[in-house]
From TrEMBL:
One of its GO terms (molecular function) is DNA binding. Gene3D superfamilies: lambda repressor-like DNA-binding domains. It comes from Desulfovibrio sp. U5L. This is Putative transcriptional regulator. Transmembrane segments: none annotated. Residues 6-61 form the HTH cro/C1-type domain. SUPFAM superfamilies: lambda repressor-like DNA-binding domains. It comes from the Bacteria. Pfam families: HTH_26. SMART domains: HTH_XRE.
């Protein structure tokens, strides 16, 4: 199972959902999907966009458990 770490990375960087949405241009719903249990349904492009906005690597956005 893949577990999202997007929420933790955002908190560590002090970023809100609104700020990340503004930085990425993604819909709030898309970001919320990546922050929750549905991260596995996000495309690699979406994850790369989020990672770029957070200043991290795509692999930092999730952990396998």
């Amino acid at each position: 199972m893949i577990t999202s770490r997007v929420r933790q990375v955002m908190e560590a960087k002090g970023l809100t959902v609104r700020e990340v949405v503004e930085r990425t241009g993604l819909a709030k719903e898309t970001l919320n999907r990546a922050r929750g249990d549905l991260i596995g349904r996000c495309t690699l492009d979406t994850l790369a966009t989020i990672a770029g906005a957070l200043g991290c690597r795509v692999k930092d956005l999730f952990e396998e458990g």
